[in-house]
Amino acid sequence: MSPDRVTAPGETGPGHAGIVLRLRGVSVAYGNRLALDGVDLTVRRGERVALVGPSGAGKSTLLGLGNGTVVPTQGRLDVLGVEPRALSPGALRTLRARIGSVHQQLHLVGPLPVVHNVNAGRLGSWGRLRAVRSLVRPLQVDEARTALERVGIGPDLHVRTDRLSGGEQQRVALARLLVQDPELVLADEPVASLDPARAEDVMRLLCGLLEQPTGHRRTLVVSLHDFDLAVRHCDRVIALRGGRVVLDVPVEEVDEGTRARIYDLAPGP
Ligand SMILES: Nc1ncnc2c1ncn2[C@@H]1O[C@H](COP(=O)(O)OP(=O)(O)OP(=O)(O)O)[C@@H](O)[C@H]1O
Fold first, then answer.
1. Is 32 close to ligand 1, i.e. is its CB under 6 Å away?
2. Residue 189 C-alpha to ligand 1 middle, in angstroms?
3. Cβ atoms 233, 207 nearer than 8 A
4. Which domains does the chain have, with CATH numbers?
5. DSSP letters along 132-165, please?
6. When you count CB atoms within 10 A of the terminal residue's CB, does the N or C end of the chain come out lower?
7. Which mutation among 26, 37, 60, 189 tests ligand 1's pocket best, with the greatest number of atoms within 8 A of CB?
């Protein structure tokens, strides 16, 4: 089945400044297992895109393409205007510094003070020497404090991170994202392990962090198992099934039947 709509209004070509992520006929195979099968899609600057679909549909694989951890087996991929496969290791590092990743696991270093975990968001842009210096004596402490305040955590930057509650640690991870200041945020089931109230809270916080003081919005692509969360927090829903895009619509076009169609539809031809 072809997707209901693969939106591409305003697209004028590969160099179009508003395009953050573009896949053209992208397939990904793990051995003989086809995880993505000829996917076409375009994500524009400032969009909040939810990836939904049943388990094994290809959502994580698609997000992996965005951050360069997965390489297309076939097709053309552009991320922030470049093709990751064509980059040198150094250029790939530079690209990754512009992309924020959020996972179910927070990847914090528990025994380290909070400030270091927040500053880890800068590692992609700091040189090695600077990173080591900051471990000895934390750099950019005021910015770390501001980021923590923005996510609603008190001023104690020097407490061990693993002494904080699970919810507070989640906020430290979001403060790390904030100091990284990425142009594109890729979040792979960031709230899967949380109860509904916490999931709502984290999604609200994450979406709030996308808003920049300049009035611009960072782009978000987030995979979510909770369809209602996707509709409440995103402005576009892309459904994958069997490695194919089966639906791509603005949330205003989501109706009562959409959920059933996503989860009960037969896979595409
Ligand atoms: N590293 C891998 N090696 C082999 N097969 C893989 C690998 N990663 C994913 N797959 C397979 O590719 C398909 C798509 O997996 P993917 O994790 O992208 O789906 P998903 O939609 O994110 O699933 P879930 O919602 O369960 O996380 C699945 O059939 C999966 O088993």
1. no
2. 13
3. yes
4. 1-98+186-269 (3.40.50.300), 106-181 (no CATH)
5. HHHHHS-SSHHHHHHHHHHTT--S-TTSBGGGS-
6. C
7. 60
Q: Which residue has the tokens 């539809």?
A: 265
Tens of pLDDT, residue by residue over 90-104, are 898 889 999 999 988
Q: Is the ipTM of this complex over 0.85?
A: yes
Beta strand spans in 6-113 (E): 19-30, 33-44, 48-52, 74-79, 99-103
Q: Is the C-beta atom of 61 inside 6 A of ligand 1?
A: yes
Q: Does residue 176 sit in helix, strand or coil? A: helix
Spatial CB neighbours of 267, under 8 Å, sequence gap ≥ 6: 1, 241, 242, 244, 246
Q: What is the DSSP string of 104-129?
A: SS----TTSBHHHHHHGGGTTTS-HH
221 touches ligand 1 (CB under 6 Å): no
H helix or E strand, kind and range, residue 57: none
pTM score above 0.90: no
- Using the mean position of ligand 1's atoms as its centre, give its distance from the Cα of residue 56 in Å: 5
